[in-house]
Write a structure and sequence with these properties.
The protein has 167 residues and is mainly α. It is built from seven helices and four strands, in the order E-E-H-H-H-H-H-H-E-E-H. It has two domains: 34 residues; 104 residues, Arc Repressor Mutant, subunit A (Orthogonal Bundle). Strands 1-2 form a two-stranded antiparallel ribbon. It has a two-stranded antiparallel sheet with strand order 3-4. Strand 1 and strand 2 form a beta hairpin. The termini are far apart.
Length: 167
């Protein structure tokens, strides 16, 4: 078993060994820091090679609120009510663009935003749509690989496509 975590001073520690030994070491380190009054160590988050920069992180709630508050874009309800999966999947990316975010969104992010808007599309279906019919309307951070996060942003063609959805 392998485990990695970051010490409070920023040092990255990686352990490799029997699961019981690793667990014992983590318990020892966690209880040691707790007894000294410092915060317990958290395992380091796994980082992918293609992580997006954290420059202006916009949460799912921010995107949902932006979409719900767009009174000057009455076609948004038509998009959510339509059966066109491409338009539905592009909507959160369109919102991110208009909110000024340069960071992309994963298929999981898109699926969660749509679920909060009352439209359930599973993550695999969102991913398939972004790599399929919606491909010409998005830019991907990398080639799709199993288990690797791909960050999508809407392209100029996608913005024009969504802006053309009036009535």
């Amino acid at each position: 078993m392998k485990a990695s975590f970051t010490l409070p001073n920023g040092t990255l520690v990686q352990l490799d060994g029997d699961p019981n030994d690793v667990r014992a070491m983590l318990n020892h380190l966690g209880s040691d820091s707790a007894s000294k009054g410092t915060r317990a160590m958290q395992p380091a988050a796994r980082s992918a090679v293609n992580d997006q920069p954290d420059e202006a992180t916009i949460s799912e709630i921010d995107v949902v609120n932006w979409i719900k508050n767009q009174t000057e874009l009455p076609w948004i309800d038509q998009v959510l009510d339509s059966r066109d999966v491409t338009r539905r999947v592009l909507l959160p990316l369109y919102a991110l663009h208009h909110m000024g975010s340069r960071a992309g969104a994963t298929s999981g992010f898109v699926s969660r935003v749509l679920a909060q808007l009352g439209v359930r599309i599973s993550v695999p279906n969102v991913s398939t749509e972004l790599a399929g019919r919606a491909k010409k309307f998005v830019l991907a951070s990398s080639v799709r690989k199993k288990g690797a996060a791909v960050f999508y942003t809407i392209s100029r063609a996608g913005i024009n496509y969504m802006d053309g959805q009036h009535g």
